[in-house]
Design goal:
alpha+beta, 8 strands, globular
Length: about 200
């Protein structure tokens, strides 16, 4: 697969995710946490790794919002996708592109493991997040997804702030949270589908 094809697939994945929410309940030590995971378009700038392509000046213009930059890439204005795919820094983006492409399928399969920041590997201490979930693949790599509470509504939502692939970190974690329930919501059609319920496994 070419870099351009990989970028196109990542943008298509973002377009699906922006119309999707996951309502996730996790528990630990008799305490439950409700996570409403959403994907606003301004979050894609960092998730996809636009900040990594330092030689594509348009992506780093201070007078353009991240939502506007995403729309330009979505519409491929002035063949901006070719410029990104040809960046000398594209190798730094590729792990992020592959993880966002896989994300919806992984969440729908309910195989992820959740940790809070204080319980997780110190490798990630510099990332600003509240929870991380990961999924280990058959090649002994993990896909990591970091989420942060936004606190913008009565029922606080969470957004993804970073994602990447890497070999399994060294070190020990405390016991993870248990996935209790997950509902997938289509924000356009208003439909909600329960895709995991611990009490009805």
């Amino acid at each position: 697969m070419t870099n351009r094809e990989l970028l196109d697939q990542a943008i298509a994945a973002c377009e699906r995710l922006k119309n999707t929410e996951y309502h996730i309940t996790i528990g630990k030590n008799n305490n439950e946490t409700q996570i409403i995971l959403s994907f606003p378009t301004d979050s894609f700038h960092h998730i996809i790794g636009f900040h990594k392509t330092k030689d594509v000046n348009f992506l780093h213009s201070d007078d353009r919002s991240r939502e506007r930059i995403y729309e330009i890439v979505l519409n491929n204005t002035n063949n901006i996708r070719d410029a990104i795919a040809s960046s000398i820094f594209i190798d730094k983006m590729i792990p992020r592109l592959t993880t966002i492409i896989k994300l919806e399928e992984l969440l729908d399969n309910n195989k992820e493991t959740y940790y809070s920041k204080s319980n997780y590997y110190s490798d990630f201490k510099d990332i600003d997040y509240d929870f991380v979930f990961h999924v280990k693949d058959e090649d002994f790599f993990m896909s990591f997804y970091f989420i942060k509470e936004t606190g913008t509504s009565v029922q606080d939502k969470y957004v993804m702030v970073s994602t990447f692939e890497k070999e399994e970190p060294r070190g020990h974690c405390r016991r993870p949270h248990t996935l209790l329930k997950k509902t997938k919501v289509n924000k356009v059609g208003g439909t909600a589908t329960i895709i995991f319920d611990f009490n009805n496994k």
